[in-house]
């Protein structure tokens, strides 16, 4: 049995702001059948600690970046969790990263240095807990663990760093370095120094034994300047330890046969229940859908996700007889734009600003097609859920979207393997062409149903990726 300490800033269902939480929450269960035991180290946010009322204090720190802290162990909702109970760092309601004013917490450098420091202490077994074979760090918030371990005495566990989104790098000014407790030698080009400051993701990529990202295509993209965003040179230098491992989804949570959020259950073999969900979705969003394509979006509203292109393309979507149901929140100007579009086109565009898990499930079950026009997408989970639920993904040909959706081109249709629609480049014109092509596919009900069933029969589970991770862990543990 390989023991892994998974280190992250969020994990579903305890705390979630995005897909990172879904991945961190699902991996332990997926890995267990492959001989991997995962403990997940999380900050002790109020939502995490409230889910651990019977937690056991297993370690104590007299001073963790400005105050005492404890490590609390429990197994809430089936996860083996260690939570850092440090009220001075994590005892704040709301978003884990930003305050009520929408700005990053001023002490995020210390808050997530604490996550990395505790991970290193647990990883070395000096916190009184059994040392794992592997410390697996997710994104920049956990990245400093690699530096703490690199400069700690032996024995040390092996380390894996996973990049979920290169756009979020955890850069802080050089003035924070003195408070981190790292040796002076760590502040250099071969250490944590990055553009004159401290780079938490850079630290992970510099020192981790293995680097993964969440799709093979994204692993290639981040080695180029446009995708690497300043870290492409380091990644090219370490290319021999970089690989892409596709994400999956929890197929028990995302199961249209048993999903309590749906108006009617259904399956690939018996898809009739989708009609009831389509009607329920239209009613919830006040849409007059008719026979046209009911398009949907479930997304963070940002330029990265290409939602500005969709807003510009709305005349084409409406022109082909389509309607739109959107669930999302993000950049205020995009929230305002889609809200304005909904007000201008009642019955054709319905918008929910925010995130609601029940609505997300109903959207996947009721929409004809799910739009993911991202400018870059490390993996994406929403298109995987769409495949499972029979909503055809309409996606830009980037990153994990390119790796998971088979375009309904003539060859794929003839071979009977198409699962959605891809378009490239990520531009308004290409998106508009994809909307027209989707409407044409939808007009042929037999063809549409065949593509829909192909998607629903796709393996979007964690099984294959869990085997890949288990093999990677085992190889590292032997070295």
UniProtKB/TrEMBL annotation:
Keywords: Glycogen biosynthesis, Glycosyltransferase, Transferase. The keyword Transferase applies. Its EC number is 2.4.1.21. Pfam families: Glyco_transf_5, Glycos_transf_1. ADP-alpha-D-glucose binds at residue 16. One of its GO terms (molecular function) is alpha-1,4-glucan glucosyltransferase (ADP-glucose donor) activity. GO terms for biological process: glycogen biosynthetic process. Residues 292-437 form the Glycosyl transferase family domain. Belongs to the glycosyltransferase 1 family. Bacterial/plant glycogen synthase subfamily. This is Glycogen synthase.
């Amino acid at each position: 049995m390989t023991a892994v300490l998974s280190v992250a800033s969020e994990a579903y269902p305890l705390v979630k702001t995005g897909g990172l939480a879904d991945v961190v929450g699902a991996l332990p269960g997926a890995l267990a059948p492959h001989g991997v035991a995962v403990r997940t180290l999380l900050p002790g946010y109020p939502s995490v600690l409230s889910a651990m009322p019977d937690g056991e204090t297993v370690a104590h720190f007299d001073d963790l970046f400005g105050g005492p802290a404890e490590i609390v162990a429990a197994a809430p909702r089936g996860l083996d969790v260690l939570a850092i109970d440090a009220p001075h760092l994590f005892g704040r309601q709301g978003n884990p990263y930003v305050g009520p004013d929408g700005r990053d917490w001023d002490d995020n450098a210390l808050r997530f240095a604490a996550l990395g420091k505790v991970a290193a202490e647990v990883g070395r077994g000096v916190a009184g807990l059994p040392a794992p074979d592997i410390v697996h760090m997710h994104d920049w918030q956990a990245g400093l663990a690699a530096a703490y371990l690199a400069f700690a005495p032996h024995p040390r566990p092996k380390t894996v760093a996973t990049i979920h989104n290169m756009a979020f790098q955890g850069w802080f000014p050089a003035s924070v370095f003195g408070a981190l407790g790292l040796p002076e030698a760590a502040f250099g080009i071969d250490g944590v120094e990055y553009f004159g400051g401290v780079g938490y993701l850079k630290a992970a990529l510099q020192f981790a034994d293995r680097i993964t990202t969440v799709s093979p295509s994204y692993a290639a993209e981040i080695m180029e300047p446009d995708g690497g965003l300043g870290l492409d040179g380091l990644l090219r230098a370490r290319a021999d330890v970089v690989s892409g491992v596709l994400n999956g989804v929890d197929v028990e949570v995302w199961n249209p046969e048993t999903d309590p959020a749906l108006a009617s259950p259904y399956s690939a073999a018996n898809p009739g229940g989708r009609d009831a969900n389509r009607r329920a979705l239209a009613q919830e969003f006040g849409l007059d859908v008719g026979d046209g394509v009911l398009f949907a979006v479930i997304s963070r509203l940002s330029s990265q996700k290409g939602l500005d292109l969709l807003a510009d393309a709305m005349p084409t979507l409406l022109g082909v007889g389509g309607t739109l149901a959107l669930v999302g929140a993000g950049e205020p100007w995009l929230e305002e734009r889609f809200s304005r579009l909904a007000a201008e086109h009642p019955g054709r565009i319905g918008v929910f600003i925010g995130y609601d898990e029940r609505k997300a499930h109903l959207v996947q079950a009721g929409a004809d097609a799910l739009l993911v026009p991202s400018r870059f997408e490390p993996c994406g989970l929403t298109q995987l859920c769409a495949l499972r639920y029979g909503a055809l993904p309409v996606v830009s040909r980037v990153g994990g979207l390119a790796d998971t959706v088979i375009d309904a081109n003539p060859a794929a249709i003839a071979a009977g393997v198409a699962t959605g629609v891809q378009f490239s480049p990520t531009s308004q014109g290409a998106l508009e062409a994809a909307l027209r092509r989707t409407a044409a596919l939808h007009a042929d009900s037999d063809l549409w149903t065949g593509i829909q069933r192909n998607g629903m029969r796709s393996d979007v589970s964690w099984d294959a990726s869990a085997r890949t991770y288990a093999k990677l862990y085992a190889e590292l543990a032997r070295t």
